[in-house]
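In the design runs reported in the main text, the only information available to the sequence generator was the tokenized backbone. The following block is the verbatim input for one such run; it is reproduced so that readers can re-run the procedure and compare outputs position by position.
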């Protein structure tokens, strides 16, 4: 009897072991197409764990230049777009790829270059600084990648009345890469470049580079976030994506952004409630 009971128990255990496991609950997750500056500055590494802990929603970040990130949103390959080129963002909404743009935070751009400053750019007038670079034909590294930083750089050249493409291959170099790569290239070649302050603060390989031009109101750098329109792409995870946006602009999210510092320096300044953001 004992032997029969033991064999029966073993058979039951074997049967249970061979049954397919119950499927785990599907992970709640979203894809965010964002700029290299939010990723390379370390901001996402700081705020996303707090969001996931609060909501249970995991976030996958695709870090690209702003233009490319918007293209990802247009194709429906992301649920959220988090970028920094207001004109391009408003166009994205006008085209129907999002129904609303939310301001999130800001910082500023800086002109960095060799500390000796052979072009004489030091000060707080970015237009004058760019004119000096062009006149001296001093080496300048451009991201050249349709990013928010690249778009801002081109607008500033236009304000200076200069077409930098005329210096291409001589003093103006477009690398078609992100902010980190542009900073490394400039550091290696003693060149000038425009950088967002967040990536600059987090950048370690500065070598002889320093901040030369800052404080000009034309260097203001605003970030916005948008839900990719589920009416255009039905597979967009609208509920989870909206939860991410709502958290970013909430007190908890805004406090998390403000708390992110490197060496005592704050990288981004929340302004979700600014109607002009």
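Verbatim output:
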């Amino acid at each position: 009897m004992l032997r029969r009971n033991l064999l029966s128990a073993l058979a039951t255990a074997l049967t249970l072991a061979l049954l397919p496991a119950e499927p785990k609950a599907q992970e709640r997750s979203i894809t965010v197409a964002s700029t290299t500056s939010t990723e390379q500055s370390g901001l996402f590494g700081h705020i996303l764990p707090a969001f996931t802990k609060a909501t249970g929603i995991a976030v996958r970040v695709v870090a690209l230049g702003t233009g490319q990130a918007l293209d990802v949103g247009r194709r429906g390959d992301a649920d959220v777009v988090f970028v920094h080129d207001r004109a391009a963002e408003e166009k994205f909404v006008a085209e129907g790829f999002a129904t609303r743009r939310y301001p999130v935070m800001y910082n500023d751009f800086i002109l960095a270059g060799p500390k000796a400053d052979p072009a004489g750019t030091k000060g707080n007038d970015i237009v004058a600084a760019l004119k000096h670079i062009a006149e001296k034909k001093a080496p300048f590294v451009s991201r050249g990648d349709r990013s928010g930083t690249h778009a801002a750089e081109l607008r500033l050249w236009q304000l200076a009345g200069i077409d930098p493409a005329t210096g291409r291959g001589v003093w103006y170099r477009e690398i078609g890469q992100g902010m980190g790569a542009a900073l490394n290239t400039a550091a290696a070649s003693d060149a000038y470049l425009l950088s967002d302050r967040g990536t600059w603060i987090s950048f370690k390989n500065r070598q002889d580079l320093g901040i030369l031009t800052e404080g000009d109101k034309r260097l203001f750098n605003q970030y916005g976030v948008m839900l990719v329109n589920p009416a255009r792409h039905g597979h967009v995870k609208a509920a989870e994506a909206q939860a991410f946006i709502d958290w970013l602009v909430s007190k908890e999210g805004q406090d998390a952004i403000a708390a992110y510092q490197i060496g005592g320096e704050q990288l981004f300044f929340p302004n979700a409630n600014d109607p002009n953001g």
